[in-house]
Design brief:
The complex is a heterodimer of chains A (274) and B (270).
Chain A lengths: L7 H23 E2 L2 E2 L2 H8 L1 H33 L3 H12 L6 H12 L4 H8 L11 H26 L2 H9 L4 H12 L1 H17 L2 H7 L6 H11 L3 H37 L1
Antiparallel strand pairs in A: 1-2
Chain B lengths: L1 H29 L16 H8 L1 H33 L3 H16 L2 H15 L4 H27 L2 H9 L4 H12 L1 H17 L2 H6 L6 H9 L5 H41 L1
Helix pairs in contact in B: 1-12, 2-12, 3-6, 3-9, 3-11, 4-6, 6-9, 7-8
Classes of the chains: A mainly alpha (274), B mainly alpha (270).
Chain lengths: 274, 270
């Protein structure tokens, strides 16, 4: 018996449950009543509302990713410079929330931000006026950053703690000050971690629908909400499929761009090294 | 100067930790007071927990989540391990093709994967929500198992398998007695990964399961309508369970690393 036969059950499973379902998305996007149609594509690309939701999703995901990087990089950097045993325990606490159900993490913010929630209780006790925090763009951004921050910290911390200390010592010995060492040595070496952090935050952020629905309500839908609404609530499978394909294309483009960035960084390094 | 910078660094870490944990602790605190609104502290009470244990729908969802996570992880681990062994011995072209298709569910947004399942199940008229969710979970677990096992296979030598066959093993016995013990760490980490992914899943289940709830779906459908106190209690319980498990697992692996380090140092000094 050939060893490749061991994978036969999986190959069959893979074709039925990975390949065929994807074909179904393309089928329902382009075929209506047995005929090829571009009606759904036109609808998706020509309805101003859908375009504005798409742009809003990209903007929200970009801002959330930037904020995660801004908050997360210093955390990873400080951790990586600590004593090994301290860093191991502390980093665990930064990564732990990653393993908790994101709906519960989102729900915790609902309890805080709701009109009759904890934040308003604090405000009124301290003598301030009640505010309205739920169903705002800012709240959606806040909870997105909250949910995805550990996914930025983990890969950057992993790569930073693997950097060979002798590179940094060499930079110091050759007369570079701390800032120079950081920007010329540490930062370039940490690019792979930053790239995977950005990927791990940007892609879930741009495809999310539960966070924006629970925190942003119906006022600020993201592209994921739009797709969910078309598929589940309106049962418009054709349009929903086209929107899904657009989202998929967007994700693939961002993955390709990320890979390019990483590769270019690698080349540059090689260049300056010689 | 040095002290000041250390102080600033520690305060920064403290602030970020506060941001990460404050919502969780507030939620746990407010699970011990029973009121419809959280605009005023109403005094200590276990009312939320009593409500939680009386609510049947919660326990149906918990049961679904746990049974599906276990079954899906077991099936995916067995099928995935055999798949990895098979793929490993394929010719390069076929191997690349299968590996690329296997990566698809990892690259594909959950939303799109979920919708693709929904379209498939609707088209073939498969209506059992529980089985739909189970099949979806097995499918998205498989790539993670396969890619946990593959690196182990690459490290282990093909000769072992051949030697076992030369010594008179049938392929099946060579596999179970020689190859599988050798790649066991990869299989175990694949299983753990599959279980955690499955128990945490929301998006794919939401589309695939057609109304059958797991914990995530239950929380989502309740949270859309408000913030009832028994969800505070459920969240608090789950946070405590997950946190305890993870702290135990992590502390153990940190301890093991330390022991390994000590061992290595001893060896070096000899």
């Amino acid at each position: 018996m050939k060893r490749t036969f061991f994978s036969t059950p999986y190959i069959v499973w893979m074709i039925i449950f990975i390949v065929v379902p994807m074909l179904f998305i393309f089928y329902s996007a382009f075929i209506q009543d047995g005929h090829f149609t571009t009606e759904f594509v036109n609808q998706a690309l020509e309805t101003p509302l859908y375009i504005s939701v798409l742009i809003r999703s990209i903007v929200v995901a970009l801002i959330a990713t930037a904020l995660c990087l801004l908050i997360g990089y210093p955390v990873a950097y400080i951790l990586s410079n600590m004593k090994k045993s301290t860093a191991a325990i502390l980093s665990m606490f930064f990564i732990l929330p990653m393993w908790m159900n994101f709906l519960l993490r989102t729900y915790a913010w609902q309890v805080i931000l709701a009109d009759n929630g904890v934040l308003n209780m604090l405000l009124t006790t301290l003598g301030f006026a009640k505010g309205s925090f739920m169903y705002t763009q800012g709240a959606v951004l806040l909870v997105t950053v909250y949910n995805f921050l550990p996914f930025m910290i983990l890969p950057i911390y992993t790569i930073l703690s693997k950097i060979d200390r002798s590179h940094i010592e060499a930079a110091h010995d050759l007369g570079a000050n701390s800032a120079n060492t950081f920007f010329k040595v540490v930062l370039p070496l940490s690019v792979p971690g930053v790239v995977s952090g950005i990927t791990m935050v940007f892609i879930p952020a741009i495809t999310t629908f539960a966070i924006s629905r629970l925190i942003g309500g119906k006022k600020y839908p993201l592209y994921g909400d739009l797709i969910e609404d078309k598929i589940v609530a309106s049962g418009n499978l054709g349009l929903g499929s086209v929107l899904s394909i657009i989202l998929l294309v967007l994700v693939i483009i961002s993955i390709v761009v990320m890979h390019k960035m990483e590769a270019e960084q690698g080349n540059e390094e090689g260049g300056t090294l010689w | 100067m040095k002290k000041l910078s250390a102080f600033l660094k520690h305060s920064y870490l403290g602030l970020v930790l506060l941001f990460m944990y404050a919502p969780i602790f507030i939620l746990i605190l407010f699970s011990f007071t029973d009121s419809r609104t959280m605009s005023k502290w109403q005094g200590w009470s276990f009312g939320a927990y009593e409500k939680l244990f009386a609510e049947r729908a919660v326990w149906v969802a918990v049961q679904n989540s746990i049974t599906i996570a276990i079954i899906a992880a077991v099936v995916a681990t067995i099928m995935g391990t055999f798949a990895a062994i098979g793929i490993h011995s394929m010719k390069k072209r076929n191997r690349m093709l299968v590996e690329n298709v296997t990566q698809l569910p990892m690259v594909n947004p959950d939303l799109v994967t979920g919708i693709s399942f929904m379209l498939l199940f609707t088209a073939i008229g498969f209506t059992s929500g529980y089985l739909r969710m189970l099949i979806a979970h097995i499918t998205f677990n498989l790539p993670y198992v396969i890619f946990s096992v593959m690196p182990r296979l690459r490290q282990s030598s093909n000769r072992l398998y051949e030697a076992a066959m030369d010594l008179g093993c049938t392929p099946m016995i060579a596999l179970t007695k020689v190859v599988i013990p050798d790649i066991m760490p990869g299989i175990i980490s694949g299983f753990i990964l599959a279980f955690t992914l499955s128990i945490d899943d929301f998006v794919i289940s939401w589309f695939a399961a057609d109304g059958v709830p797991n914990i995530s779906i239950y929380v989502y459908s309740i949270a859309r309508r408000g913030i009832p106190s028994h969800i505070n209690a459920l969240s608090a319980l789950m946070f405590v369970v997950v946190a305890t498990l993870l702290v135990i697992v992590n502390l153990r692996s940190i301890k093991q690393e330390k022991e390994a380090e000590v061992q290595a140092r001893k060896l070096r000094s000899k």
